């Protein structure tokens, strides 16, 4: 196994933390980033309790200043793998959707990855190697009501990745997007409550009739499935897989 240095955004909790933990367990060098130092420190402490080493820095992906500070801190580190994971969600019909929240979701989910890629691609290109892995969503391929900003951003992320795949095709750099259906994280737990309110149903009904109903396998996606997909995409075995959406959806989109 080739040991790689991986930088993961939004890595203090949820999918990001799960990927960071799994990759640290594999012996990779992990750089955790999240919106503030307290969250980063908490994540590093959790990893340390399990005997796992990592370092971390605060990064608000909507902030150019934050990104420049991060780049200064990692100036002497070659990033092999960038995992764009930072994200938020807001559930509301468009008529009631605060436009500042709509803009923020796009800034984090779509503009954020563009910013991190723009700053990290030159060093990857100079080294002749890089793996960019976006944590997308099934909602990059399909739509659900009350998620206009999120769905728009995730659809845009797939288009963005295709363009960057073409722009980096002359070297051993790839960019791909993992598109899972619902993963049981704190973000999804909040969605359950929000959707129950929007749809006028119980939280149990939201899980059964909205989240799992479209999936023939009727199961939440496990973070370990995503981590193993990250591991494959980061490897030399995926050198010709680029600009692709890897869909982990329990059969949702095959119907």
UniProtKB/TrEMBL annotation:
Question: Mind telling me which SUPFAM superfamilies this protein's record contains?
Answer: NAD(P)-binding Rossmann-fold domains (SSF51735)
Q: Which Gene3D superfamilies match?
A: NAD(P)-binding Rossmann-like Domain
Q: Which family does it belong to?
A: Belongs to the short-chain dehydrogenases/reductases (SDR) family.
Q: Which GO terms describe its molecular function?
A: 3-hydroxybutyrate dehydrogenase activity
NCBIfam families of this UniProt entry? PHB_DH (TIGR01963), PRK12429.1 (NF009093)
Q: What is this protein called?
A: 3-hydroxybutyrate dehydrogenase
Q: Which UniProt keywords apply?
A: Oxidoreductase
Q: Which organism is it from?
A: Thalassotalea litorea
